[in-house]
Specification:
Oligomer: heterodimer
Largest sheet of chain B: 6 strands, antiparallel
Distance between the termini of chain B: 14 Å
Strand content of chain A: over 45%
Number of helices of chain A: 3
Shape of chain B: globular
Number of strands of chain A: 7
Radius of gyration of chain B: 15 Å
Number of helices of chain B: 1
Strand order of the largest sheet of chain B: 6-3-1-14-11-10
Largest interface: A-B, 22 and 22 residues
Shape of chain A: globular
Order of helices and strands of chain B: EEEEEEHEEEEEEEE
Helix content of chain A: 10-25%
């Protein structure tokens, strides 16, 4: 398990950010290589993420679901459950958004298995950190 | 005079960055080139559109033919873009930049180390910069017997 903490800022107000983050059609494409395949409900979507490593790539496909939310505190937990389409590995994560001010805090608890995990936990952590930092720069324009 | 008919010219890249394990060390064959000695001085030219990835070692998955072709295309379209490659008077011209590069040749094998950033080439990177091609690439030439 890898745990990471990040923050983001959009320069917009709290209500705007809360609505934007909870809209999976807007949130998921902020992940580089991420796209919604099918919206199952307001709070659940089938999605995939294609992680490019130069000419090589790995595609993880699964679901993103809001598993808990507190509209008063403006915190929400997103469960990501995905499998590597080219192997037996998986990438799961529980991502907690805490919206406040003109942005928010993101706590990510991820569990990766298979080929990606074979790079070692330290490397997975470094890559995930870089990926989430990139995500926060795209969130800034959500 | 040397060329693909009597010698093999290859470029060797190494992986760098935190996620180096995810990448491959590449062997790239230069398919069109020629070299002569003029008064003891090496004069060389190569077609930068003729670089072809022939081998990739390492990585968390093996490098297939489609990926090799994709990398060759990236080298052509995003890195060298058809710019001439020449070596004359101890100076290499690459990507429009001319700089001295040491080349050693013992009659059978020759080697040179080329630092990409010296030639205004940004080493290719992926995975949000955690996987990148090492700045220095090695160039080797090996003559064939007979």
């Amino acid at each position: 398990m890898v745990e990471l903490n990040h923050s983001f800022s959009t320069g917009k107000d709290t209500d705007y950010n809360w609505d934007a983050v909870l809209d999976l059609d807007r949130l998921i494409p902020c992940v580089e290589g991420g796209k919604v395949l099918e919206r199952e409900s307001d709070e659940k979507a089938k999605a995939e993420i294609k992680v490019k490593m130069g000419a090589m790539s790995m595609t993880f496909r699964g679901t993103v679901e809001v598993t808990s939310r507190d509209d008063a505190a403006k915190t929400a937990v997103f469960a990501v459950r995905s499998k590597d389409t080219g192997g037996s590995g998986y990438a799961n994560a529980d991502v907690t958004f805490d919206i406040s001010g003109d942005g928010g805090a993101i706590n990510t608890q991820a569990k990766i298995s298979g080929k990606a995990a074979s790079m070692g936990e330290g490397v997975v952590q470094t890559v995930l950190d870089a990926m989430i930092k990139d995500f926060t720069t795209k969130l800034a324009k959500i | 005079m040397y060329g693909p008919e009597n010698a093999e010219l290859t470029v060797h890249t190494k992986r760098g960055g935190a996620a180096a394990k995810a990448g491959h060390d590449l062997t790239i064959l230069v398919e069109r080139w020629n070299a002569t000695y003029e008064g003891g001085d090496l004069v060389f030219e190569a077609d930068s559109r003729s670089l072809r990835v022939i081998d990739g070692s390492g990585g968390i998955t093996s490098l297939g033919d489609a990926e090799k072709a994709a990398i060759s295309e990236t080298i052509d379209e995003e890195v060298l873009k058809g710019t001439p490659i020449t070596y004359r008077g101890g100076e290499l011209t690459l990507n429009g930049v001319t700089r001295p590069v040491a080349f050693t040749f013992d009659g059978t094998e020759g080697r040179a180390a080329v630092k990409q950033t010296d030639f205004k080439i940004k080493p290719y990177s992926a995975l949000f910069g955690t996987l990148k091609v090492a700045d220095v690439v090695e160039v080797k030439v090996r003559t064939r017997n007979g």
